[in-house]
Amino acid sequence: MAYYLGIDFGTSGARAIVINQDRQICLQVSLTFGQASYDNLSTHWQEFLASLLSKIGLEIRQQIRAIAINGTSSTVLLCDSQGKAIAEPLFYNDSRGKSCLDQIQQIAPANHVVNSSTSSLAKLLWYQQQDYWQEEKYFLHQADWLGFLLHGKLGVSDYHNALKLGYDPQLLTYPNWLQQQSFYPLLPEVFAPGTPIKEVTPEISDRFGFPSDCLVCTGTTDSIAAFIASGANQPGEAVTSLGSTLVLKLLSKTPVSASQYGIYSHRFQDLWLTGGASNTGGAVLKYFFSDPQLKQLSAQIDPTQLSDLDYYPLLEHGERFPVNDPNLAPRLEPRPKSDSDFLAGLLTSMARIEAQGYAKLQKLGASKLIKVYTAGGGAQNNTWTKIRQNQLQLPVLVAPETQASYGTALLAMQGSHS
Prior knowledge:
alpha/beta; 17 strands
């Protein structure tokens, strides 16, 4: 029996899924990090990775043919020639790079995805200003470094993680403006996600019982791994994630970029994955209602009758997509006496915003929307699904799998067969 291992490495925990050649899940394990010391975070990551692998039974580990890892987008670190971190990793949401935005604007094209205080490039430039900079050897993303721990080859990344570093996924190279920078030699070599890099090191093979020819492949980011898990793979297919916020991802034949709306495109094999994120979503619903209330009130709503309440459900001022207005005020009035009517207004308004978001992506040049898969906690609300389907006038389905570790296991399988 051949198995394939996908690992999802987040900020609060890590998860692993093992699948067989029929894409069936054979094993799932997880680990919560707890209160790790930030100063020794890379050491803790190494320990957590080992602990996670140890939770997989030896009998299965001995038959794993390939491994891939995803990490959080724009979580990065500097390391020396031996792969040892020489500075604290910077998380995806670390914005200290805002002090380097003027520098980015001088070297990068206007409205480029790197023009953000949390981009990988902004973090690299921040590192460059620190006293330890002269020691640098490699600048890596979280998934890159974790992969190195297994295969031993430094300086390797994938074009999903490298996008916010400035890599050009259309030309499949670093652009000239980036190659001209003094730090360019630090940047990793970039491959397609799921590309076999090297077999596990003899030390890893001996310690965990992996076959000596078990391949370690390039990974991806957590959100794209979740998209891969959904099974969407045709132009016009999309995934809406109904979590705390509303996140749209649409597969397109052509890339779309509009940084003023937070829209950018990842290469997805020979297609493009484009999308945006609204500040509306489940966090607003949970502000007004408990989970039992949401379930009870949703059952009282007729999803075929769209509410005429015109809300823009936000918890605070500001919206990113499909409207880009940092001062946009929440619109939650008038509130009817009936809680079920109020909830119907919220759900209908969020469905309207979702439809406007997909319309925005298509107006900017993305492929025509044909089908929407749903992920996240809101996917379990059948009433909301029917309201969204009425609003979109398209099939809306619950994604059969949404776990990022499952999508990453599929990448590992792909790599082993390439």
